[in-house]
Amino acid sequence: MNASRREMLRGAAAAALTAAVPGILASRVSFAAPAAGDARFVFVLLRGALDGLAAAPPVGDANYRQLRGELALNDIPGLVALDDLFGLHPAMGFLAEQWRARQLSVLHAVATPYRERSHFDAQDVLESGYTLPHASQSGWLNRSLAGLPSAGKAAMQHAGVALGAGIPLVMRGANDVASWSPSRLPQLEDDTLQRLSDLYADDSLLSRRLADALAADDMAGGMSGDMTRSGAGGGGATQVAQTAKTAAGFLKQDNGPRMAVFETTGWDTHANQGTDKGTLAVRLAALDAGLRALCTELGPVWKRTVVLVATEFGRTAALNGTRGTDHGTGAAAFLLGGAVRGGRVVADWPGLAPAALYQGRDLRPTTDLRSVTKAVLRDHLGIAAKFIDAEVFPDSAAAPCLANLVQTA
Amino acid sequence: MYPADAAIAANRFGLGARPGELSAFGQHAREALLAQLQGAAPLLPELLPGSKQLLAQVTAQREQSRDEKQTGGAANAVAVARALRDVYQPAYVADAMARFRAAVASERSFTERLVHFWSNHFAVSVDKVVVLGLAGALEREAIRPHVLGNFADMLLAVEHHASMLLFLDNQQSIGPNSQAARIAGRRGRDVGLNENLGREILELHTLGVDGQYSQADVRGLATMITGWSISGESGRLRGGEPGEFFFREAFHEPGAAVLLGKRYAEGGFRQGAAALRDLATNPHTARHLATKLVRHFIADDPPVAAVDQVAAAYMASGGNLPSTCRALIAAPDAWKNQLSKFKSPADYVFSAWRALSLPLPAGAMQRDLRVFEDLGQRNFQPGSPAGWPDRSADWDGSAALMKRLEWAQGLSQRLGVQRNAQELAGEMLGATLSAGTQRAIARAADGAQALTLLLCSPEFMRR
Predict the structure, then answer these.
(1) Buried b (16+ CB within 10 A) or exposed e, A75-89
(2) Residue A270 near chain B (CB below 8 Å)
């Protein structure tokens, strides 16, 4: 974002106001800054179903080794022992550091209310925050923006940012959010931009989107060039790290957004998923590098940050016929950041005995992921419990908010 | 001004009006669409290597690495790198360019859109490298020949195509009681079923996620298609002519299997094929496909009446796709003069090139494909077997919109002086051209800016 575009926008916004048109540039005016000391939250969405039994393997469970066969991680060098029951996959060195610093909690046997095995419906439930697929066109992260304390709704515009070309469902909804992905195309000329904003004045969708794009441009303008240059999204190590760094670039600005979401793909390991090496290890290492980049780039802001890493469901307890795992139910999630009361595995562990498995094949879910998310929203971001129950996670009485997951101020 | 139907036929059903197209449609837009369904299958005019040839080349390279006495992981890595460089990457570029050229040049662009629709329905994604060179071949070999034929034929062609088998891991799926499983068991190795393809056939390709099937049905179908594999691989996948579909008897689960309450007797390959034929004509499949078609051609939230009509036509014709499309054309909702669909990035790019009548150079290279990546829709890479999503909210994000505007400006600056945006506007948008856009174009500072405004206009963003 160059200075001239900014100046033009300010001028245009003023003009729009005098004309009393609630059009595109008027919303720029209400793009206000949350207080500098505010909490930050990052949601990292792993699409494709992370194998929680490999990321945080229950190596102390009597049935684990046999179920997993050649995928069992019991004797893998570098496995980090979290406690008597659980280990942490050796590809995740940063998470191990966070664990030792008591800034990582591992959540296990967690699930959304969804109990079938479609990726797409499961992701829909994970993102919408409802109990059934396709119940809502908005996501829980977007709805929670309106519940942030200390400011009216208008001031909360662009309190959320999605990294990537599209906005994932979890961040879609009535509250305007920024989305950002780096572009290698030449910037739009200021005069053309002005004419386009006029042309879009009667089109509520396009005028909103254009305003959002400019707001994101504006925020990104403060970042160093290497942060905004290469691709966002995807699953490769460089990509995840770049995306995470860009997210941090937004979040650490005093007037920046308070919640960010980005996603990584490639977790659907049906065949040859490997152990300490292989497909899954490469993905885990990329995720780990991304989270490290996020922490490094956030600097002092990491202290007031919580990151939730979650996936749509887990994978089968046993390995399948092609040295991989099929779609399952109970999953693992990670909660990390300077504001996390970490160093714990939070799990009501159901065990992997045949009778304990869900439908005889999957890790049985014992904790509702919404119970975890609610705790972050309430205790870290200060959103009222009533608002969470009514607006963010409707029909979530079955998922009571967990206590003591994060540091409270 | 051309009749409203002409713009709908060209822009909603087709891939975008080329100059002259609206006037050719005239008062007979619907008839023209129906006529497109009568012609020959929309095959590509160019000849590209088939999947058998591509896979045979990869197999040959693997043997070459072996002859060079490289062993184990290193040999494999070298072979993969070679296959990528010499076979898959060139094939990917050739296929993506060929479909780009076809989309821009087609005079029957409704049928070309149908190709894209069905190809996306049966999506593979090239982030799984093993299908990088084969995704285009799947579209050419299993989709295009059947777009104006029967769904059951397309379904069968797709599910036993090398690209789909590799994408959803079926080539290694082994029946628990098969000969191969018994041998492996004696050697102390566990091999068995991979339910990935079986599940996605039911959830994505036929019944749909609400299609009333169970986990047992997933296993049942996965069992019936054990042994659906590809020949020419080494080791335990040896057998047959390199690159061809190969029914691997030794992997196939013997005996009868049950799907949706119906028992399918043992019959080798025919067992799974029979199951697919039944799935193709299941009413849930009709409903699922009709909903997707209506969402693609009419509105994000498919009007129930239109879905009912299309599903009924599908069932009545036994899954005949032209009959199904005729019901779509007959749906009154399709012809309401509203721009209800936000164009996907690929739609947007195709329609811009068509409007500007830009011939794609035959020798075009990878850089010409970058636009799809820049705008968020890299060819054959939807990222999941569900394919690209099909609602406005999936494509209208602010970052995505800004890139679209930036790309349109770049294109206009290259061509601005050669195109008269004021004339072009009517040729592209017909009755959907708004007074506001006309005014903006008329007042533009120069030709390039006028063209930018036209390409970025609210009505050109939609169809």
Answers:
(1) ebeebbebeebbbbb
(2) yes
Give Cα B373 to chain centroid, integer Å: 16
A206 → closest Cβ in B173, B191, B458 = B458
Q: Shortest Cα distance from B371 to chain A (angstroms)?
A: 9
Query: Could you count the other beta carbons within 10 Å of the beta carbon of residue B86?
Result: 14
Task: Report yes or no: A279 at the B interface, CB cutoff 8 Å.
Answer: no
Taking the model in full, what pTM does it have? Answer: 0.82
Buried b vs exposed e over A296-327: b needs ≥16 C-beta within 10 Å?
ebbeebbebbbbbbbbbbbbbbbbbbbbbbbb
Mutation target for B interface from A67, A199, A327: give the one with most B CBs within 10 A. A199
Top-confidence residue, A16 or A149: A149
Average pLDDT over residues A181-206: 91
Domains and CATH numbers, chain A: 31-182+230-392 (3.40.720)
Chain A nearest CA to B444, separation (Å): 9
Closest CA to A375 of A338, A335, A345, A323: A335
- A176 near A31, Cβ under 8 Å? no
Question: Å from B21 to nearest chain A CA?
Answer: 26
Which tens digit of pLDDT belongs to each residue from B108-141? 999 999 999 999 999 999 988 889 999 999 999 9
B31-65 confidence digits (pLDDT tens): 999 999 998 999 998 899 999 999 988 888 777 77
Cα(A162)–Cα(A169) distance, rounded to whole angstroms? Answer: 10
**DSSP 3-state of A259:** strand
Mutation site, B402, B443, B449, B454, interface A, largest A CB count within 10 A? B402
% helix / strand / coil in chain B, to the nearest 5?
60, 5, 35
Test B440 with A191 for CB contact under 8 angstroms: no
> Which residues 8-37 of chain A have a CB within 8 Å of chain B?
none
User: Which pLDDT score, from 0 to 100, does residue B370 have?
Assistant: 87
* Nearest CB neighbour to B403, from listed A121, A165, A169: A165
CA-nearest residue to A116 within chain B is B215
**For the segment A208-245, what is each residue's pLDDT rounded down to a tens digit?**
999 888 888 877 766 655 444 444 445 567 788 989 99
Q: CB distance A200–B376 less than 8 Å?
A: no
Express each pLDDT in A270-323 by its tens digit. Answer: 988 999 999 999 999 999 999 999 999 999 999 999 999 999 999 999 999 889
> Could you say which of A181, A265, A271 has the minimum Cβ distance to residue B172?
A271
**Neighbouring C-beta atoms of residue B367, cutoff 10 Å:** 7
| Per-residue tokens: A310 | 């979650």
Q: What is the least distance, in Å, from the CA of A364 to any CA of chain B?
A: 16
Integer Cα distance of A113 and A118 in angstroms: 13
> How far, rounded to the nearest angstrom, does the alpha carbon of residue A325 sit from its chain's CA centroid?
24
* Beta strand spans in A47-89 (E): 80-81, 87-88
Comparing CA positions, the residue from A287, A234, A365, A327 lying closest to residue B199 is A327
The residues, any chain, with a CB within 8 Å of residue A226's CB and separated by 6 or more, are: none
Pairs of residues, one from chain A and one from chain B, whose beta carbons lie less than 8 Å apart: 158
**CB–CB of B196 and A270 under 8 A?**
yes
Instruction: Examine the pLDDT at B78 and tell me if it is beyond 80.
Output: no
A216 shares contact with chain B (CB less than 8 Å): yes
Instruction: Please state, for a pLDDT cut of 70, what percent of chain A lies above it.
Output: 85
Burial of residue A254, with CB atoms counted within 10 A of its CB: 0-12 exposed, 13-18 middle, 19 or more buried: exposed
Substitution target in A195, A207, A282 with the highest count of B β-carbons within 10 Å is A195
User: Minimal Cα–Cα distance from B393 to chain A, Å?
Assistant: 8
pLDDT confidence tier of residue B69, bands split at 50, 70 and 90: low
